[in-house]
Amino acid sequence: MAISTTNSTAQSVLDKYSVNKTGTSAETTASDGKKGGKLGKDEFLKLMVAQMNNQNPLEPQGNGEFIAQLAQFSTVEGITNLNTSVGSILSGSQSSQALQASTLVGRKVIVDTDKVKVDTSADFKGALNLTASSPNVWVNVYNDAGSQVNRLNLGQQSSGLVNFTWDGTDASGKKLAAGTYRFEAQANVNDTTTAMKTSLPANVDSVTLGQNGGEMTLNLAGVGSIGISKVQAVGQ
């Protein structure tokens, strides 16, 4: 009596699945347009064993096919292990980010901005980036209403980072209330008034952790939210 048992049943099940390069299993679409199942490494191995058990003894599976399926199984297992490793790295990165965030709250950071919240009870120190040497450099100070309250004359300066200090008073020497102030740095370059960028200290009120490994965001008093990559330095 001829033996008619073949591996067609197991093979047809295997054919319902496909393994992609991005995870441990893949979703497939059958001919009727419906979503297929998910095939992990355990299911793949079971189906491969079932295929071997049900193969036709008179026409056994060739070595090449068997090796190809083993290679595919190894690929699935390798991707599984890779995803596990990447997940561990991401988890460790998020933990490190959370620890870093906790140390920043309440401290000051130096960022490129022209507007910050100032405690006028103490001297406020900032800096401007002078792009060229100038015979006359100054910083105009504006309150939150947009009115100019003082002007800091820095005189002649060489190109580079120029520091300045404001004592929190107006032009008449009167101490002003704490609040948000804007600093407008300008310089005379080649007989032309030119605006310069300012780098100012701002207090970190809170920190927002990045999602899925994204950049951490700092919420700064008087400035708003900025990415941590834009921080130039961390103060006390």
Q: What is the CA-based Rg, rounded?
A: 33 Å
Order of helices and strands, N to C? HHHEEEEEEEEEEE
Strand content: 25-35%
**Structural class of the secondary elements?**
alpha+beta
Q: How many domains, in number, for the residues?
A: 2
pLDDT < 50 runs, ≥5 residues: 1-7, 16-36
Return the average pLDDT rounded to an integer: 78
The helical percent reads 25-40%
Beginning-to-end CA distance, first to last residue: 90 Å
Instruction: Give the CA-based shape.
Output: elongated
**Secondary structure: number of strands:** 11
Largest sheet: 11 strands, antiparallel
How many DSSP helices?
A: 3
Oligomer: single chain
Description of the molecule:
Pfam families: FlgD, FlgD_ig, FLgD_tudor. Required for flagellar hook formation. May act as a scaffolding protein. Belongs to the FlgD family. Residues 96-232 form the FlgD Tudor-like domain. This is Basal-body rod modification protein FlgD. By secondary structure, this protein is α+β, with helices and mostly antiparallel strands. The protein has two domains: 8-101, no CATH class; 112-201, Immunoglobulin-like, CATH 2.60.40. The protein is built from three helices and eleven strands, in the order αααβββββββββββ. The N and C termini lie far apart (90 Å). It has helices spanning 8-15, 41-53, 63-104; strands at residues 108-112, 115-118, 124-130, 134-142, 148-157, 160-166, 179-189, 192-208, 217-220, 224-227, 233-234. 15% of the residues are buried. Helix 1 packs antiparallel against helix 2. A hairpin with an 8-residue loop joins strand 8 and strand 9. Strands 1, 2, 3, 4, 5, 6, 7, 8, 9, 10 and 11 form an eleven-stranded antiparallel β-sheet that branches.
